[in-house]
């Protein structure tokens, strides 16, 4: 294939992460026609909507074959775990995203722990259970704080950070009863302490290219209070991270990809490591088999790379560190959510001011839970509605700009955290 040949691309997903991926893919000289399934209200000016079920391997592969798609990019975890990448790859069509076997790094916490143990990488000590009574007995025996996790995909809800035995027992019962197959195995983990840091990496199964670090804000309310969410805001890079810690995080991700390869599993796609920076060094909290949301919305705008070339290289085994460079700028993104998220919230509220926010230099508003009505007006359509992202030469400037841009946007029930990035400003000693 000549280097300049354009290829048509199908992107699966509908979140702010996918909007950020689409913008970066569209900027590549290699990008031909772009398709999204299902997409959101912000993606229509760059891509057409493909009428396929993103979790059906046959549907996705059939569409890709019929339309002559040259690259399928998988955003969320569910299609990965369902084996969409395997079926598309079996058709001889390049795909960005790991096989179902490799995606078990996210799809089964027990699988991930076993790989980590074989690879010798630091993570919280754990026990796994398939019997609720044995699990409850173990928790009583611990008699203190612990973390209870459903083994499978639970849409971000299957983790209970329990300070007391009583909270842990409630969590154990919830995991065994509320999560179906995802909760048939339940893990009890040692509680780790320290700031969190995410590291996304691209890999073709052999070469691992770390992307920039980022820090998410998982809790719904200011001061890290309230329930866990998909993520309420994020920044990149993480200024409190020490060079030695970053080196260890990169080494851990390389060890894991190498271990999988030794086990006969070639991991191709994005490996997302969630780390806790403990006083004994970084320890793995979890791995995800995809880009983070909202982490992607601050990592990709800072990345100097041809994303189409990078993704094709992950698929054909030619990934090279030299393909990725970084802007020195800082990025901060604030999530505008619907009142009530992550619990019940209303949809269909008209949104105004997005163009005013986008008009600010260095500001880009990624759509997440939005849709368009028949006249093309943007309406809310989810819990996390918009990711208001700013990039600037200093952290403070990026943060101020993101919040100024948030003020320009209105919709009924608009809620957001006001303290995104405060920890980065306070510094390590004051956390
Ligand atoms: P996970 O989906 O496994 O990353 O868990 C979600 C969140 O729960 C993490 O971002 C942490 O804030 C918290 N968490 C998970 N595991 C632990 C642990 N072993 N110790 C302390 N906090 C944890
Ligand atoms: N921001 C957390 C995640 O993508 O899982």
UniProtKB/TrEMBL annotation:
Biological process terms in GO annotation: 'de novo' IMP biosynthetic process; purine nucleobase biosynthetic process
Residues annotated as domain ATP-grasp: 113-316
Sorted UniProt keywords: ATP-binding, Ligase, Nucleotide-binding, Purine biosynthesis
InterPro entries to which the protein is assigned, alphabetical: ATP-grasp, ATP_grasp_subdomain_1, PreATP-grasp_dom_sf, PRibGlycinamid_synth_ATP-grasp, PRibGlycinamide_synth, PRibGlycinamide_synth_C-dom, PRibGlycinamide_synth_C_sf, PRibGlycinamide_synth_CS
Family matches, as SUPFAM superfamilies: Glutathione synthetase ATP-binding domain-like, PreATP-grasp domain, Rudiment single hybrid motif
PROSITE patterns linked: ATP_GRASP (PS50975), GARS (PS00184)
Catalysed reaction, written as an equation: 5-phospho-beta-D-ribosylamine + glycine + ATP = N(1)-(5-phospho-beta-D-ribosyl)glycinamide + ADP + phosphate + H(+)
Gene3D superfamilies: 3.40.50.20, ATP-grasp fold, A domain, ATP-grasp fold, B domain, Phosphoribosylglycinamide synthetase, C-terminal domain
Originating gene: purD
Superkingdom of the organism of origin: Bacteria
EC number from the UniProt entry: 6.3.4.13
Class in the EC hierarchy, top level: ligase
Signal sequence coordinates: none
Gene Ontology molecular function: ATP binding; metal ion binding; phosphoribosylamine-glycine ligase activity
Name of this chain's protein: Phosphoribosylamine--glycine ligase
HAMAP family reported in the protein's UniProt record: GARS
């Amino acid at each position: 294939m000549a280097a300049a040949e354009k290829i048509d691309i199908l992107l699966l997903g509908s979140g702010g992460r996918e909007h950020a991926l689409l913008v970066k893919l569209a900027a590549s000289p290699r990008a031909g026609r772009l398709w999204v399934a299902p997409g959101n209200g912000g993606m229509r000016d760059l891509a057409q909507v493909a009428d396929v079920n993103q979790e059906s391997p046959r549907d996705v592969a059939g569409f890709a074959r019929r339309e002559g798609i040259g690259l399928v990019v998988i955003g969320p975890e569910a299609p990965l775990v369902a084996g969409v990448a395997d079926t598309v790859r079996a058709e001889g069509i390049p795909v960005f995203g790991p096989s179902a076997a490799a995606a078990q790094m996210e799809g089964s916490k027990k699988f991930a722990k076993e790989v980590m143990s074989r690879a010798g990488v630091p993570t919280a000590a754990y026990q796994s259970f398939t019997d609720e009574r044995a699990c409850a007995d173990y928790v009583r025996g611990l008699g203190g704080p612990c973390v209870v996790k459903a083994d499978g995909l639970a849409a971000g809800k299957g983790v209970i950070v329990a300070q007391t035995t009583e909270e842990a027992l409630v969590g154990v019962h919830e995991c065994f009863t509320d999560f179906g197959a995802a909760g048939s195995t339940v893990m009890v983990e040692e509680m780790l302490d320290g700031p969190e840091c995410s590291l996304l990496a691209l890999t073709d199964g052999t070469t691992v290219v770390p992307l920039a670090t980022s820090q998410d804000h998982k809790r719904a309310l200011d001061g890290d209070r309230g329930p866990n969410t998909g993520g309420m805001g994020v920044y990149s890079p993480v200024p409190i991270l020490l060079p030695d810690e970053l080196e260890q995080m990169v080494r851990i991700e390389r060890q894991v990809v190498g271990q999988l390869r030794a086990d006969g599993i070639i991991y191709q796609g994005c490996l997302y490591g969630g780390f806790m920076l403990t006083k004994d060094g970084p320890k793995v909290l979890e791995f995800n088999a995809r880009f983070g949301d909202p982490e992607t919305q601050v990592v990709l705008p800072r990345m100097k790379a041809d994303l189409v070339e990078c993704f094709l290289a992950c698929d054909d085994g030619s990934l090279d560190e030299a393909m990725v460079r970084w802007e020195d700028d800082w990025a901060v993104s604030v999530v505008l959510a619907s009142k009530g998220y992550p619990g019940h919230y209303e949809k269909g509220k008209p949104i105004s001011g997005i163009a005013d926010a986008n008009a600010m230099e260095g500001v880009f508003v990624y759509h997440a839970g939005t849709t368009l009505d028949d006249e093309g007006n943007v309406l809310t359509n989810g819990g996390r509605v918009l990711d208001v992202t700013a990039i600037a030469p200093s952290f403070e400037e990026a943060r101020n700009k993101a919040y100024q841009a948030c003020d320009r946007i209105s919709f009924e029930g608009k809620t957001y955290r006001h303290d995104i990035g405060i920890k980065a400003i306070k510094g390590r000693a004051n956390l």
